[in-house]
Specification:
Strand order of the largest sheet: 1-2-3-6-5-4
GO molecular function, one term: serine-type endopeptidase activity
Shape: globular
Protein name: Peptidase S1 domain-containing protein
Radius of gyration: 17 Å
Largest sheet: 6 strands, antiparallel, barrel
Strand content: 25-35%
CATH topology of the largest domain: Thrombin, subunit H
Keywords: Disulfide bond, Signal
Number of strands: 13
Structural class: mainly beta
Pfam family, one: Trypsin
Oligomer: single chain
CATH class of the largest domain: Mainly Beta
Length: 261
């Protein structure tokens, strides 16, 4: 991280309390006086596959790099998304302007499987559309974890929540034949639910200033029946902040293309 970016983050953390610990101070707390528990969930739809994603800033959605093969063929849905196929589908639709993928992305080992999608216009926040919190504190312990997913194989979709436990490295090695790295999390559902929804989030309920916040901990890359591999968000804070806030990077002017950073 450059001195300029360190200075920016330090100033941001000292400026306010509470939600200023997060990338977007307007991110979603739990029970914000409305019925939407997951207003940050996004669907990334393409002709070949659908994936999950999360709104993290007013024009940025984060997902796994494996979820976006061609941004020209993909769209992002936010809000009250319940049906992507029928004529009565709801939600707010966005095109993708730019895709940032991590330059070290390794499909074979699920490493650095992370991407940020820049939407074609700013998102208007409302009760059903709010960003998920990304903590700027990298030292938080993993507690009270839950996996959120759409269940995209069903005709109608709605967020589903599963309790998650951290698994030993050995279990991931048995499931995938690889040894996960420090930048990854091996986790599993407590039931027999299918763990195969790339881009879906691992979420922690974090207490800050006596309020509970939905905080993004990981993004799912690989999955088997009950075993998931997530890329740990705390490992990418500098990368995410640099793209979202245009700090110490050159933002491309051409639209609808990939940028490896």
């Amino acid at each position: 991280m450059t001195a300029g970016l360190w200075c920016f983050l330090f100033t941001l953390l000292l400026a306010h309390r509470g939600s200023a610990h997060f990338l977007d101070a307007r991110c979603s707390s739990r029970n914000v006086n409305n019925s939407w528990d997951t207003p940050w969930m996004a669907v990334i739809a393409s002709p070949t596959r659908n994936c999950s994603g999360m709104l993290i800033y007013n024009q940025h959605v984060i997902t796994s790099a494996s979820c976006v093969s061609d941004p020209r063929d993909s769209t992002v849905w936010l809000g009250n998304v319940d049906n992507l196929m029928g004529p009565q589908r709801r939600g707010v639709k966005y095109s993708i302007q730019t895709v940032y993928t991590h330059k070290l992305y390794n499909k074979q080992y699920f490493e650095y499987d992370i991407a940020i999608l820049v939407l074609d216009g700013p998102v208007i926040y409302q009760k059903s559309i709010l960003p998920i919190c990304i903590s700027l504190d990298k030292t938080k312990k993993f507690e009270n974890l839950k996996a959120i997913r759409w269940g995209l194989y069903a005709e109608s979709i709605f967020p589903r929540t599963n309790t998650v436990i951290i698994l030993k490295v050995r279990q991931c090695r048995q499931s995938f034949g690889i040894t996960i790295q420090k930048s990854q999390i091996c986790a599993g559902f407590k039931n027999s639910r299918n763990c195969r929804e790339p881009g879906s989030p691992l979420v922690q309920e974090m207490t800050v200033s006596k309020q509970i916040w939905n905080t993004l901990i990981g993004i799912q890359s690989g999955g088997s029946m009950q075993t998931c591999i997530y890329n740990k968000i705390s490992n990418y804070i500098d990368w995410i902040v640099g793209i979202v806030l245009s700090v110490d990077i050159i933002v491309p002017t051409n639209s609808s293309h990939f940028v490896n950073l």
